[in-house]
């Protein structure tokens, strides 16, 4: 069979995609290379595009701080939020998609409306509530308020609508309990959406600087973004050290994306077919 010759529009589209990919990758390249530059080279103009004399001094200076503790806090908080959001959102999404009860549509509208609220609007009442519960500067205060994520419920509900209702009814006729139905039938079918939601939740929790800044008080409870922000001086900023920390902070997010990449793609494409 004769191979189809690429058309000029498709070639131009591919070139545009390559240029956009390089454009989005350049900041990451600049951070990684900057982590191996000394201070005067990191801020030099014109810039040095590749370190001619790479050094590990930035990493040595970085690890003089409790970076491992900050990294553990970030990973623990982000992982706990990811598991909690995936579990609660999958249950709520399944109920809103497949269970018929009074007020179902109203509840879903409230979830969608909550997505429009900026996080800053609820921070004051949230802080007051956490202070009353004595959860300030604790893992509970960092994790539990973020588990009820409206976007997660919205995504899982949209995807759960694609599950055939006949499958659910057949399982009930066979005597399957609700817990077993959800654990053995619904959850496996929701894997693509769960993969997408896991990536969204982990990245959102890992980068949630503002909320963690309000809730955290002590240095040992700081997450990695907060800890790196404390390295900035009043008069000078160690750009090489900050770039070294940023390069290390990006590794968990890249790993999570690579692990859930296939499920992420399926979840985005399949979960949007029904409204």
UniProtKB/TrEMBL annotation:
Keyword field: Cell membrane, Membrane, Transmembrane, Transmembrane helix, Transport
Subcellular locations according to the entry: Cell membrane
Keyword field contains Transport: yes
Record-annotated ABC transmembrane type-1 domain positions: 71-260
SUPFAM superfamilies with a match to the protein in the record: MetI-like
Keyword Translocase recorded: no
The organism's place on the tree of life at top rank: Bacteria
Membrane-spanning residues: 12-32, 75-96, 108-130, 142-160, 181-203, 239-260
Membrane topology term: Multi-pass membrane protein
UniProt cross-references to Gene3D superfamilies, sorted A to Z: MetI-like
Family: Belongs to the binding-protein-dependent transport system permease family.
Protein name: Carbohydrate ABC transporter permease
Biological source species: Paenibacillus gallinarum
């Amino acid at each position: 069979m004769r191979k189809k010759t690429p058309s000029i529009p498709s070639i131009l589209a591919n070139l545009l995609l390559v240029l956009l990919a390089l454009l989005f990758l350049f900041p990451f390249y600049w951070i990684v290379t900057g982590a191996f530059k000394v201070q005067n080279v990191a801020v030099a103009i014109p810039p040095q595009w590749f370190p001619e004399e790479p050094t590990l001094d930035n990493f040595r200076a970085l690890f003089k701080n409790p970076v491992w503790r900050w990294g553990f806090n970030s990973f623990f908080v982000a992982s706990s939020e990811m598991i909690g959001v995936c579990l609660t959102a999958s249950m709520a999404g399944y109920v809103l998609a497949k269970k018929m009860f009074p007020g179902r549509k109203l509840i879903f509208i409230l979830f969608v409306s909550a997505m429009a609220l900026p996080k800053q609007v609820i921070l004051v009442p949230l802080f007051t509530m956490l202070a009353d519960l004595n959860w300030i500067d604790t893992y509970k205060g960092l994790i539990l308020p973020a588990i009820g994520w409206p976007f997660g419920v919205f995504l899982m509900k949209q995807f759960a609508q694609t599950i055939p209702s006949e499958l659910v009814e057949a399982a009930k006729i066979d005597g399957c309990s609700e817990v077993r139905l959800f654990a053995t039938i619904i959850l496996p079918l929701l894997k693509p959406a769960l993969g997408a939601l896991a990536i969204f939740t982990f990245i959102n929790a890992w980068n949630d600087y503002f909320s963690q800044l309000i809730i955290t008080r002590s240095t040992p409870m700081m997450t990695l973004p907060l800890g790196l922000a404390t390295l900035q001086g009043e008069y000078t900023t160690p750009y090489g050290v900050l770039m070294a920390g940023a390069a290390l902070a990006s590794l968990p997010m890249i790993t999570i994306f690579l692990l859930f990449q296939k499920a992420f793609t399926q979840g985005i494409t399949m979960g949007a077919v029904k409204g």
